[in-house]
Every structure is written in structure tokens, then in C-alpha cells.
Amino acid sequence: MTPSPDVDVLFLSVTLLLGSRLELHSSYQGSESTVCTQSHSNRRMEKVQALLTRPVRPSSRVRCAIHRHRGGHDDDGEGPAHVEMNFFQPESEEDLESGPTNDITSLVLHLPREQKKVVLYLSLTSLLIFTTAFLLGYVAFRGSCRYCGDFDGELMPIDDMAGAEQTPWGRVMHLGELREMLRKYLKEEKIESTVRRVSRTNHPPGSPEGNELASEILQNFRQLHMDHTWTDSHYATLQFPSRKQKNSLWIVDGQGEMVEDISPENPLDYCAYSGMGTATGSVVYVNYGRQEDFDLLVSWGVPLGGALAVARVGGGVSFAEKVWHAQQAGLGGVLIYPDPADIPQDPRRLGLFHNTSISEHVHLGSGDPFTPGFPSFNHTQFPPTQSSGLPLIPAQPISANTASKILSQVTGAECPRGWQGRLPYVRCALGLGFNAPSGRRLKMGVYNSMTPVLLNNIFASIEGKIEPDHYIIMGAQRDSWDPGAAKAGVGTALLLELARTFSSMVDNGFCPRRSLLFVSWDAGDFGNVGATEWLEGYLSMLHLKAVAYFSLDKALLGDDNLQAYTSPLLVDLIEGVIKQVEHPKHSGKSIYTHAEDQGSSWRSQIVKPLYLNSGAYSFTAFGGVPAMELRLTEDRRPYPFVNTQLDTMQRLQEMLQGRVGPLGRSVAELVGLMVLRLAHDHVLALDVTCYSGAVLHFSSQLKKFSNELQARGLSPQWVFSARGDYNRAAETLKDAILNSDVQDERLTRLYNTRIMRVEYYFLSQYVSAVETPFRHVLHGRGDHTVCALTEHLSLLHSNSSRFDEARFRRQLALLTWTLQGAANALSGDVWNIDNTF
């Protein structure tokens, strides 16, 4: 009886698996019957090999043959058996009858029915055993694969999502998956507990409390099993209040004898890097101490030489800028107080502030001012030098009550509208002395001491899988000479939470293309000393390594408005994430939607220029690295206790209505999403065309003065040409990226290298990093900047006699060649430069 085709197929299928195993097993049996079986098998193999020499025709039936291949021999000299699929073309009807007797298929087709049942039973039994073993192995080992994409408790197979890439480390997860994973792992309760722990006491650099906190953070990083964890140490010279002599403030008579002692109530209130010594003089109220305030005083004919300035906190300028402006105007000293008009309208806070001073450093720069431009590494010897930004006149913070005692006795013309604060019992007067008796003056004494301190920056990193030498950096100030809940506690908490979150994501399948660096900076209260010293140490390489820097300092000062102090290169990046994150105060709306609902563009509300005391400023203006500092705040009542002894967790919670955790999580999510984008994309999401608009705006300013410039033989055409070259180079690079295959790793790396250097291109190569550290022509400080050139140019209309033609020629030349150099570098190789200059 001839078997049916369906039965033949079933028997053939199961026999392919069992046949080879049974025959291979028989070769290892030591009995006499085994030898006979092996001999029979060898003869059968000879027949099969003879059949294989026949030509293969298009229409054929499947025939299976067993071959023994040499190599990897067993004890009998025979190699392992293999099942091979061949095709047999019957040439005649006889072949259909006789052909199967010549190969292994005939062994199945010609078996008696009873033996077929046995073979079928054995086959099904083997299949059941194999399936059971596979399921047991899957259950036992499913958790051991780090890169299989285990998410939400379910194993994600490699081909689970279309478009996912395959790498030696596992499947590259989609950006959407990573966003959801980030949101899943961020924990707001950990943020709140860290802020509370960090701000339990003062912890200035070098103190036992500061060293204990540094060790705690280092241990925390190590527990996260980062790829690398290390400490970067520097010796820097910091200024602290003297232990031997308190800073003083007296009202004295005509002979210099003390009439009233109004010295600061708290000896910890001081301005780091103040000039030291005493100063005595009349009193002048200078509003916020901005440059325009001093210009107005000069225009009104108020003599400023040798007087002591009383300035109020705020006005968009730092303490260092207030003191610098006063020194340039010829004043002998500066007293800085918080005016009630600049404090949120809350009677409880106003009462606290009557006797509270705000402390801030007054070095017009960043880093160790006694090694400007150089890293303060141990055992490094430099000639005696100091930063030009160190003030020569003394400066001291005072409370509103102390300022009231001084200004209530000042004579002079009444202050103009807009200058009047809200000090109690004070008639705002510009002042040049006291009411009565005549001859009284103010005397101040500052006796701070310089101290060398060992600083420790704490680093941890997750190494990138494709571009490990490219870093995305997140950092926060750790130290504080007060409790520092908002100043240092929040930033440290966000840093640790982001480090924990990204580490958990890597454990669950995230493979970042680029490395992630998490840094806890020391001596931030003294002008970002720890961060700047690290920048100075690696200045020659960071523009090749650092993709971007995100500062987490002072991230929570309110709950209503988001502000991004940022390099323009990162503006498109922030636009993308604010559309994806819900507003922390207005549920149902994204941050982007809420900003647009306010009646003006989101850019005008959120995007702000980098400022001197920002934790991000040095990275861009000094290091040439795109940087950003995000902040939640509120225009009407921002958190007022930063840099005071009142900056505690309790007051921060009161100000934010107990929402430190949720608000901190919102900021961490914003930063995390931007970091994800930079770590995931093949081509870096940085806008290389962003500076074209800024240079175009400056060019339009030059056109307004074209007649005056031509009268002096000056032409702005070379600036216009350089701007055009840069714009063309940026657009060409952008178009090339859009039309390229981003899967080409060599090509994308070349593009990324050029993109990462854009910020660096705008650091002027024609000024000294020691004498002019902030060399960026758009964000820096100095005569080489666009801002300085524009101010000088404006003199042609306001006061042409002060216009210095030689100085302007130099300024214009430096700017032109910096811009042209940026255009040439952005073009790529020298043969790609279309230089029409």
C-alpha cells in the first residue's frame, strides 16, 4: 500500500531531526550490533553520494541526505553528522518508484505501518521535551540580558518595533520609548529628601560639613555603578571673613571719631573678594548701581570722587558689576542692601528682611582670581598675578534697617522717579552728606582674609556606545556659606536624580551614543571656581569633546514661568521639549502652550541671554561650549532668600506651597529630555544657523552709521562679506545634513565635529585668555565684543568727540576676522571654502 502524500510529509519532517541524531548516536555504541549498523549506514551514504552527482532540474522533489564532514573528529575519526537538503529530478516514472529506495526518504516511506506509528510517537515526544526545555530556559535567563529592552515588566524582542536598529550592544530604542522610560524612573520624593539633607547646615568649601557632603555624593555615584567615578582636585585661594577682626561700619564726626556703630549684625555677611581696608566719605545713593545710573549721576553734576555708594540689590546686575561701576566712577566703597520694593509683597517676608543681608562675591570674573586663565592644579607654579576683575575698593552687604539709618540722614536733591525704593522713614535723596550736625561722614572697614583651600569636583559618567569621546555634561554647585536650599540643595538633588534615572535606563536597555557626565562642583559661591578651574585645565580639548553643558543651579525660585539662560545653539532643543512637558502649575497645558497664551512669543518669555554669575556662563563665554541654565520662577514674587541665612528647606517649601518635589521633577524632565535627544540622535540637534541672525542685526546697526564711517575712510563692507560667508557655510552644512544618510557613521561624525565647534569659533583668537578670559565675541566681556563695538559706535551720534577712530578700527578688524574664521571653519575642508572675502 502506497502512503498518502500528507503522511509522507509528516514522516519526512520528523525524521529529518531524529534521523541524524539516531545515526550519530549509533556511532558511539560499543556493541557488535552497532558496528553492523554503522557499516550499513556507510554503504547507504555511498549510495546517497552517488545520487548527489546527478544534475538538478527546475522541477524537483526534496530529498534529504546525511553527510559526514571531516574536522572536529570524534574518537573513531569520524566527524559529526549533518542533514543536507538536496533536490532530485525524476527522469521517468521508474525513477519515482525506484528513486526513494536509494536515499533516506525510502527508509520512511517503506516502513510498515506499525513502525511508522513508533516513529511518529518518538517524534512527538522529542518535540514536547524540546519545547518544555526551551520554555524553562526562557524563564530562567530572561532577566540576564542587559540590552534586551526590558520595559514595564515585559521583554521587548529585538524586532518588536519597526525601524529599531541592531547594534553589537542590542536594539537601539526609539526616542519615544526613552522619553516614557525617563518619565517612569524620575522620582519626585527623592528630590525633596535630597534637598532637605543637603541644606541641613552651612557647608562652605574646605569645611568639615563641605567635605562630608562631597564624600556622600561620591559614595552615591559609586552605588549607581557608573562606568567611571572620580574626583578632580584643585588648590584655590578663597576669601573668608577674618576671625580676628570683624567688618565694621560707623558714622563718624568731622574729627573721625565714632558717633554710631551700625556694623553688620551677622559676621558671616560679607562680599567675597572685596578690596580690604577702610574707606571714609560722604554718602551717595546710586539706585541699582548700573552703568546708566552712574551716567545719570554724572550728567546731573553730582560729584562722586571718594564718596561711599549705597546701592540696592537687583536691577539685572551682579554685585561684582555694581562694585566695578562704582570703582570706575571714582567712588571709595560700596554698600549693598535689599530694598523692600524688590521683595515679594508678603508681610512675613518683609519682616524677615529688615535685618537680613544678602552676601555675594564681587570678583568680575569666574574661577580662582589669583591664577587667571590657568588651572589651579596642585604643585603648579605661576608668577604672582591676579585677575583684573578683582576690585580695589571695599564692598559690604548691609540690611534694609542699616540702609534706612544711613539714608534717613542724607541731604541732597530728591531722587528721580523710578529710583525710589520703599525703605521705612526715608525720603529718597541723592545725598552728599548728613543733615545735622555738619561734618559727619560714613566709615567702613573690611578685613577679610585670603585662604588656600583644597577643592574637590566629583565626577561620574555613563560611557557612550558609539561616540564615547563626546560628552553631554550636567552639573550643579555643591557648596554654600548658608543653608543654600534653593542655591545648592535643589541643583544637587536634580543632579543625583538624573544620574540615578539614566543609570536605571541603561540597566533596562538604553544605549546612549554619547557619554553622559554628572558633576558636583565645589566653590560655586566664589564665582563658579570649581567649574572654571576644570574648564581651564582642559580648555584645549573641551571644544572637541563637550557637546553641551546643562547647569542645574537655582532651578526652583518659583512655579509659574520657565526661563532658559542659554546659548542660541540650544534654543531649538528647548523648543522641542517644552511642547512635550506639562506646565507644573497649569494642568492640561504644555509649557509651550502656556507661554503662547500669554500674548507674546514663547521665545521672548522663556529664552534669556547668559549672565555673568550663571553656572553656564563660563562654559560658553570662556570654554566655547553651548550651555544652558533652566529656572522655574515667578515675576511677581520670586524666591527672595538666595544668598542669605534664611535659605532653608522650610522656607523654600513655604514659598513653593510644599511642591519642591513635583517642581523639581518638572525641571529634571526638561533637562533629561534634552540630554536624551543629544545622546540619541545620529546628528547633533544644535542650530548652526543661529548666529546668522545676531550678526545680521549688528550689520543693520552699522548701516545706520555708514555716512559717518565713510567720512572717516571706514567701510563696513568686509563685515557684511564675512557675515555672508558664515551664513552660506551654515546653510550649506544644514542642507548637506538633511540630504545625507545618517546611518553612515563616518559621515555623521564629521558633521558632528563641525557642529560641536561652532561655539568655539566665536571665541576671539586675537585676545589673551589670561587678560580677557571671556573671549566670545557675542556673549563675552571686553573691547573685542559686539556689545563694546556697538556702544563705541553709538558715540558718533551721542558724543562724537569721544569716538576713538584707532580703537574702532581695531575692534572692527578683530570682529571681522573672528567672523570670517568661523565661516571658514564651518565650511569644512579647505577645498570646500567659498571665500569671497
Provide a quick synopsis of the model:
The protein has 837 residues and is α/β, with parallel strands linked by helices. The protein is built from 28 helices and 20 strands.
Helix and strand layout, with pairings?
Blueprint: H1 5-26, H2 32-52, E1 61-68, E2 81-88, H3 93-98, H4 104-109, H5 113-141, E3 165-167, E4 170-172, H6 175-185, H7 188-198, H8 208-223, E5 228-240, E6 248-252, E7 258-261, E8 277-281, E9 283-285, H9 291-299, E10 308-312, H10 319-328, E11 333-337, H11 347-353, E12 395-397, H12 400-407, E13 441-446, E14 449-462, E15 467-477, H13 485-507, E16 514-521, H14 529-537, H15 539-545, E17 546-551, E18 561-566, H16 571-578, H17 591-597, H18 602-606, E19 607-608, H19 617-621, E20 627-633, H20 649-655, H21 660-680, H22 690-704, H23 706-711, H24 717-738, H25 745-756, H26 758-761, H27 786-798, H28 805-826
Parallel strand pairs: 9-10, 10-11, 11-12, 15-16, 15-17, 17-20, 18-19
Antiparallel strand pairs: 1-2, 3-4, 5-14, 6-7, 6-13, 8-13, 14-16, 18-20
What does this 3D model show about the protein?
With 837 residues, this protein is an alpha/beta fold. It has 4 domains: 5-139, no CATH class; 179-237 and 451-679, Aminopeptidase; 248-447, Glucose Oxidase, domain 1, CATH 3.50.30.30; 690-832, Transferrin receptor-like, dimerisation domain (Transcription Elongation Factor S-II, Chain A), CATH 1.20.930.40. Helix 13 (485-507) links the parallel strand 15 and strand 16. The N and C termini lie far apart (95 Å). Mean pLDDT is 81; it is low at 1-41, 47-110 and 141-166.
